[in-house]
Structures
1.
Amino acid sequence: MLKGKKLKLPDRLGSLVAGFDDKDDVSGGSGSVFESGEELEIIQPNGLVSDHEVVTDNDGEVEEGEMIPKRKMKVDGELVGRKQRHEKDGRDIFLKVIEADEKRSDLEYEISQKEINLEKLQRIASTGLPDGGGLRATVWKLLLGYLPPSRDLWEKELIENRQKYAKLKEELLLTPSELARVKGEALHSNEHNNADSDPDGPLTRHEISHEDHPLSLGKTSVWHQYFEHTEIAEQIDRDLQRTHPEMKFFSGESSLSRKHKESMRNILLLFSKLNPAIRYVQGMNEVLAPIYYVFSTDTDEQNASNAEADSFSCFVRLLSDSVDHFCQQLDNSSVGILSTLSRLAELLKANDEELWRHLEFTSKVKPQYYAFRWITLLLTQEFNLQSILRIWDSLLSNPFGVQDMLLRVCCAMLLCVKCRLLSGDFAANLKLLQHYPDINIEHLLQVARDLSPDTSSYRLSS
């Protein structure tokens, strides 16, 4: 053993050991005292790690030890890995912020044009619209055809549609007594403005026709029609209480949430009265919710204040593509829900026959058991609202129509849980598909876009 020869630790070693302070004094000694059991490596000048043990004397000085096997230093790999993950997450967030800013700029440019290029808008929207700022509200109105591509016509179209909605509400949502009062006030106003009327003459009594009497049993009676929709209104009220109960926007007893529920009630009841063959079907409240939420949170105050009228028109336009799914008499027709479910099965078979056979013949989980709700309610029951908004960006921007992309997303949902489905029986698979697990939405939509070209739009949207 070599005595009296001091070995100075390289400066680099201090950075590897938590709490190590490199405080070399003039004599070349070290002021640090290492805890018992600490394992260190000697770093050689050439950067290699020594294969020999370090021995210290009683004064804490480090001496060059004999050539005996050394103990390897343990570096906390978990901390290093965690730091690397944090750095990667930070980079990903930074890149997403840049991407969102660029997309926002592109959208703002596109919708500021005198004539909006809908094809380009569809391409941008299909990758997801930025939250906040009212962009999604404006783009959805354009994609649904509520706003025309010509920006100069926007104001005129909005005024006309909002006035039409106000008139429909007055005619169909007021009680007959309220409607009679409004008409009476208008008539009285006209009479008062008539120069030939005698202000000191006798009061005019307005007769109530038999059809307008509350006890009238006639089907054309306004009161009969009013009472006929009372039960539907009660069902709508019950469903609205269950609409996104986790969100204060929809639930609770605050003045704002009550206002939102009242507006949605008006929309659904008006739709029911205007569509007597379909009326209101339970679940329509879930389809309305994303539209009304987006329009109500528009940063443009005038647009937000007219969210009810705008939501009604866009809700009607959205359902026009799938309204036949709600009509039981059409279930077995080419436009009914059973035909659409068959097209979903064909789409799955074309892309993954193994999974299709397992669901169809082995576990016998038919599309009717899980996809009926997926399709009729546009996936609003399967994901949280934020995910729904992202999925709808892709549905509404699909050039072949909402139903085409909807079936692709439904098929992708099956493919993304293929392993679990293949290993499951009827009960397990039914539970899985009726309570779809959390998933990366961007990955899901990418799978939907990448489906086999054999399932082109003419097959899906027939």
2.
Amino acid sequence: MDGVYRFDTEGGLHATVYVLDSGINADHSEFGNFDGSPGSRASMNYTTIPAEPLTDAGSHGTGVAAVIGGRDSGVAKQTTLVGIKVMSTSSTNATSSGLLAGLLQVYNLEKNSPRPRSAIVNLSLATTSPPSSADTAYPEEKAIQQLMSMGIPVVVAAGNDNVNACRMIPARVKGVITVAGTAYDPAAAKQVRWEKSNYGKCVQIFAPATGIRTADAGPQNSEFAIVQGTSFAAPYVSGALAVLISQGYTGPQAWSYLKARAQIDGVSGISQGEPNLFLRLPPAIDVNPDPPVFGAGTDADVFDSGAWSADGVALDAAASGNGNGNGGNPAIGSTASAIGDTEGGGGISTGGWVGIAIGIVAVVGAVAAVVATKLVRRRRHQRAQWTPVVAQD
């Protein structure tokens, strides 16, 4: 490898990446059309923080989105980027109820889209799960499982605490693509595990986490910054998936392709059970032209995310109702205590999605109505609110 990114000029075309983060400054020059025509490929669709403007004033989400699909610094330079605001721009904290709400919004936008779906979810955030909850599936984890059961890749930052990523939500969720970070060692002329990156068997792949130039959400809409963190390693993988999806692969096929063509033993300094795979996206000429077809976009074409066969029914039930100006969530605040105890490790009942559906309905009742912007690709929307989630920057 010579360090030069030879990109596909149509990379990401027709693919959509949902960025659940602090928002996206859609007016930044990085999100302009690759051919220079007017318009932006980024938009804000939804927020769980109605007290703040529907944009990103804190730069984190904008930087993440630009690594995915920025015109200059991005991997997939023609992908559509959809911002779903689950973190305040004034801090790196969010709520797990906000994450749950954002995931529900993606579900509502995607549930009626034709298969194979061309969507990806990027989660550059994490929360530490209570030690007693190792075998407990929290509502946001089940929501992630549901999206994966629809064939949608969910890419997650491993975290920056130099601890086992299996202690983190959502990095520990079975089937997600958990991305750990590397730093380049010029003396050894190779990638090494970044000293702050989380590790362990829940990690699926490594990508760069230091010295990353990306968009900054400044007032001129053209600022850039140099950043570090697994928050910015994960979007490299999301961008690579978007490139492959635009070339005809389904989400699961694209991930299989990346794993098969990653650089083996490309990272030094790892010994905690992680696969030694460093992200590599071969030139476009080496990628398509006839991707394998397995599952053919049917329900069989999903990630190894566990059996959640009843999920769709329960989420549909939670998504119906009276409507609140942005998609029809019911507001039943009186059941808000139904999920409160799960935060302390009590878990969710074996009723599966029945429990999460009640939780979603309850939480939605506690959140004020939010302003919905224009639909993306004429799809629909939704939302909700709930423990600390930390951006991995």
3.
Amino acid sequence: MSTFDNLVKDLTRDVHRVQPKDALQFCANTTENAGPFIYDRGESPATSPLSTANPNPFANFDPATPTAQNPGDYLHPPTSAIFARRTSVSAESIAVDSGADEPLPVYPKTIEQTRRIKASIANNFIFRDLDEEQETGVISAMRELKIPRNEVVIRQGDAGDYFYVVESGQLNCYIRPEPLPPTWLTESPTNLNPQDMFVQPGYHPEFGRKVAECKEGQSFGELALMYGHPRAATVLSVEPSTLWSLDRITFRTIILKAAHRRRTMYEQFLATVTLLASLAPPERSKIADALVSKTYQDGEAVVRQGEMGETFFFIEEGEALVTKLQQSEDGHVQDIPVGLLSKGDYFGELSLLRRAPRAATVSAVQRQVASVKPRLKVAALDAHAFTRLLGPLREIMERQAEKTY
């Protein structure tokens, strides 16, 4: 009987003997404790993880030394890593609907400083999808820091709390190979033992290999804004530098409170939309979570006739003009106004319902100079969310489309 067959036999016996509440986890733990093994056709003593005679029958296989395998052994065992539980991460809870609305910090900045911060965070995955309100709040809350030369801004292994944007100066990033010395987080790096120091070119004596440089307009430490994960690198200033810093609590408060306000506003708005009158409040809440706002300049087209569409729109505020290309008697093709949409109206559904090109062009109306009317602002719903959330309303929209278009 092969080693694998013996393992399965012993595992089955132990499951019957122990009768664990979570049989799958018991099997995973048992397999992991058994260590690495290969399938062979040779004889191997049967051993159970509960046995005492030989707790690890596979100890003679050294994972550091590759073992030659028989070409016929086409099956290979999974590594124990697949049974390992993923490390948990967490962050503070933020009360977004509490009665107390403490003012968020605001630090003054010049127009040029604001522009540089915007440019620095524009392509960062954490800030990429912020709306205008959230971005303004985040930038306003960044505090200026003056950093002297040779100061450690963040230290590998420390819990992260801040994100930084470089206003001026230069900082280097270093990574020390794991595991870190036992006294790394409790003592000054200058107290490290000589054997823990680095002498190779491109290495800092204490902090390890240099992996990056952070100069004006660059940023670092963004993972700290999501959760208190240990820092992956050490960042050291190599010249006097100026940074803009943002802490995690402030960032999450700005994002979550803005999202909560937007969700509440959408729920109130969707309650006024005739199309959604038949939906229950929880269903409208799901739609509110999926909407994305966008504002258009006067005369700017939201959708164009003939284009394929992937988005459905509600009008939050302002007005939109609906036009269609028509050929006149003299052969000229021109845009003919066919409708005017206002708050609570919707458009773009026909292209998604019938998988057809847009039937008309919808543009923001051209307002008068002294007009007090707001600019066109729409709430967009992508094709996937449209199908998933508005499927029950398909017949209603089909009937309405036949009247409108």
4.
Amino acid sequence: MEPSVGSSRIPALLYAVYQLMFATITPILALGATAERGRVLPALVFAAVWITIVYCPVACWYWNPAGWIYVMGGLDFAGGGPVHMTSGTAALAWSIMLGKRRGWGTEELRYRPNNVTNVVIGTVFLWFGWLGFNGGSALSADLRAIQACMVTNMSASVAALTWCAVDWWFERKFSVVGFCSGAISGLIGITPAAGFVGTPASVAIGVLSGVGCNFATKLKYVFKYDDTIDIFATHAIGGFIGAICTGLFADARVVTFDGTVIAGGWINHHWKQIGYQLAGAVATIGYTFGVTMIILFVMNKIPGLHLRVSTFEEIVGLDESQHGEFAFDFTHLQRDIERPDEHQKLVDEFHPDKGSAHTGSGESSPSVKPAGPVRAAVEESKTPVKTE
């Protein structure tokens, strides 16, 4: 029941549980970059190792009174560095180690959202939860927590509209998925600044996050890496933008809402703050990328922990090859019943011994059902694709 290291207003146990939430969600954010080709078992092992070696040290740098960024004077209210820059950078490293999805970059395989309705529902949950994420980082139900919620909602709203405006400028379309992506970028951008800035500053942060993250999604085409759902573009870039904006807009007046005292940022003529923010951000990204690459490289050499599924498993889909079940049953019906010839062709190509029994006339025996050979072939297909 002793006071926590974060605040004397809450007990240590409550603070520990709250911090565990941050630690748990961070590697899961990075996992999004591996979709459609990454194995599940290595991801679970990676999460445990990565939290210990990467997340915990970085969180200590920012939030422990003995951490070097904390001592230097760096500001991060709710995790722009420890959560978003680390997860986004880890996603970039994971994307590079895994290599691209089969057919990535071709017109035939232009990946689209699986379910736009679910994207909207997920964004609603995230937006609502982020108010607790940022507001709760005040570690007290006070005026500063309310202000953190206010600027969080404002930044998300402005970033969502900004992302849509950028999309309309280039494509003359107002995308619902774009709106959701913009909202998330605004939530990420405001995270390090939430308890330090006023409401007008949150508008600027929303605009900068929406524009910056939107353009950052094009980096994967420039540098030829396959980040499935743009984790690096939104979380790492958004977190970096938020960290720099904190140095610009941190307001000494806002933090007095709970009795805290800081020198503030550029708006308070504290010019050095931008240097503190930049040093923390660069150190976070550099350390995370280097150590994450080492972890993944070592894991990929350990038998049973290779990172990527085989080519055949990737084609069949990870729902079946990794989980043995489908999110949507109609996909199974369409594949196995409505298109049996195409399905059987896949089996014949990758596993001739499991394919159709050919008659003397060259016709396939009708007694061979597609679902059986596929399932059997998947279980025997354990050869991983060579990672880049």
